[in-house]
Amino acid sequence: MPKPNPDTKPWAATRRGLAAELGQIDGVLPGSVIRRHMRCGKPGCACKADPPALHGPYIQWTRSVEGKTVTRFLTEDELASYQSWFDNARRLKELVAKFEIASVHALEADRRHPRTTDSKASARRSKRPADS
Question: pTM of the prediction?
Fold first, then answer.
């Protein structure tokens, strides 16, 4: 049986487009980044006043590593350098989800239009007794 050409299958152009977008991603940093203002532990500090004058902003990157939450503080320069990689992590998840959907649709469309290229298999199917 000849191998089907994936370029002629349904959703091929969509999958090729998504694959091209995946190829443009040059780095991925998972997790979330937030800016925080925090209180310190010094009893007489202005951050304890009413209203408080909190310290910060601090840039905090949080992610999961082997099931544990890991937090790291970043500088403004680090965030500026790697912001696109944080954005890429979200974009990668979106692209993979779309790729999966397109692949499922391609399989389902292919199943609705079965190929009859194997004449022996076709002949075997025609010789089977009909189900009652």
Answer: 0.64
